[in-house]
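Onboarding guide, step 5: your first structure request.
Type a short instruction followed by the sequence, for example:

Predict the 3D structure of this protein.
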Amino acid sequence: MIKKLIRGGTTLVGFAAGYGVYVLLRYVLVQAGLLTKDALTNFQWGIAAVVIALIFGFIFFLLTPAITRVSASLSKSIETEVRRLSPPTLIAGTIGLIVGLVIASLISRIYQMIDNSVLAVTLTVGTYIIFIWIGVVIGTRFLKEQIINIGQIRRSSGSRSTKPKAENAAPKILDTSVIIDGRIADIMKTGFLEGRIIIPEFVLVELRHIADSSDGLKRNRGRRGLDVLNKIQTEYGIEIFYTKDDKGIEEIPEVDVKLLKLAQSLHGKVVTNDYNLNKVAMIQGVSVLNINELANTLKPVVLPGEDMNIFLLKEGKEPGQAVAYLDDGTMIVVEDGQDHIGNNTDVVVSSVLQTSAGRMIFTKVKQ
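The system replies with structure tokens like these:
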């Protein structure tokens, strides 16, 4: 029933468009001197109008499925773009649109003095299009900054909340590994992450599948991830991003590829501790915040020549070596330390090896 109504409405639009073409064609032919108003009788002009309207109505009737598909795709695209806009951008664009409409309305009154109705209508439509475009552009570029500044002043004067809400910060998109890891909750507590915190729906689905796994270890990791997610949502607030309307992302089978595609689409940054995802993101030009790199960067700096007192835990891979660990998990390799295993020993740092996977400190027993 709905399809029949849509087809009927499209056909009526075709009839109206055909009649409009007839009026325009008649005006052009008369003004160009190719025909005179008396060249055809009113009945003949009427027949011509009906024929042209029927032709356009039939064309629109046949094109209804294609028009429906294009309209649906266009509406989804517009909806997706609108959802990506921040509230200040929407408010500024709306104000600019209204101002543009008012200015265009005032200017278009001048065109009422023109005797040529077609020229007047054309100038009016062109004026509206130009000033609407100018209003929206100026609004989104200049008014948005003023709205953001006003909002920041109000929040700073009327709220004591310490949660970071930088309007212009890139969205932060969390992947499955960083949620299961759990350290993201502590990082958010410090206030270092600004902007929107986004959890794609396909990440939620993957977490649920892990939590429902028959493997006990995977099941525990999945449940831990859900607990961390619930804590973040309760204390800081996160945004669930639904990608079902975006076929370009929804049709991708791999979660990591979906994540990078979404980050490119939103101009956001992926928060992860997955080494391989980090490398692929660098290749595709997607910004990544790797919490493992953050943790390695924040470890205490150790320079060659410094003295340390450490507990030697076990033998190393090479003959005579011993291994110790700092509280943050950094491995220390001690040359000629095998005889001191099980004891606290004074050592001297000889070199430090920093890699993307972590840091190793090489030492020698202090003589």
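Each response can be followed by summary notes, for example: The chain is about 60% helix and 15% strand.
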